[in-house]
Amino acid sequence: MMGREPLVSVLLLSYNHEKYLGECLYSIANQSYKNIEIIIADDCSSDGSRQIVDDFVSEFSSSIPIKPIKRSENVGIINNINDAIEYVEGEVVVIHASDDFSRVDRVEKIVQAFSSNKNIKYVGSEARAVNVDGDVIGFYKNGPAGLFTCDEMCRSGHSLIVGATGAWLSCLNRDIFPLPTSLNNEDQIIPFICASKGLVFNISEALVDYRFHESLSGIWASIGIRGDEAVRHRVKELDNQILNLKFIAQSLNGYKRILLCRTVDSLSLENALLAKCWLGRIKISHRCFSLYMNDKSAGRLAKLIILIFSKRLYFWFIRRARSQKISGSI
User: Taking the model in full, what pTM does it have?
Assistant: First the structure.
């Protein structure tokens, strides 16, 4: 049972974000909820990040417990979080990227959500999408507001949570970690594992400014990419998603595993079709690809099949009708 004012461990994963790190750290230090500790895991940054961390520790260590971790070599995000999680002492873990910004009441809202239902194991929220200059370019929402279950995640093949906004109960750390270094998207894997132990709660407010960089290869960054390059990005994205979901399926039992395996089969077929489009064996127009990418529903595979094959099927039916009419069968 969580205490009335539980200690919250804010786990900050830092790497070469000196431009944003100061603002990020101050957004954590100025939270309205005060019973926090800050764990700063710097993965051997080569810019000025370490000096910013040192200055922050000097300024706030008398009022906030701060645990700086300075790596002598770059170990990658999965190894970084696997090691940093050992420093957690709080009942709740809040994940934080070093280029993101938290609203002043983010931690307070998270604690309220956990306190509202003892079966909640993971909490997320909506986010504002900001560019490298801090300008708001949109809002990021992955799933329904309020409570939902692992079954809904399994059907969709997504965590239905904006991973950068996530928080979970530290008592689940032994079930989550260590994560295999062969995987990525840890912020999508963790919600699935937590959901398999209880409920998930999505706060319908944007509590995080989530930074989008030009180097991102996901859906948002692919909007301006045309033709084969856009399809290639989607194929790569699905490859990673399928790999992660296969790992998650191993930790599930019974009906949940069956649901997720069905979703993986569907995504694999979707990926196979897109790979053929990318290689030129099936032609798909940029307009059709955009329609497919903008579909957030569970029927996206069906839509892809229709978009790819509808013209072919139309002409096939026309040819068949004409041949039957000529032969006198209709």
Answer: 0.83
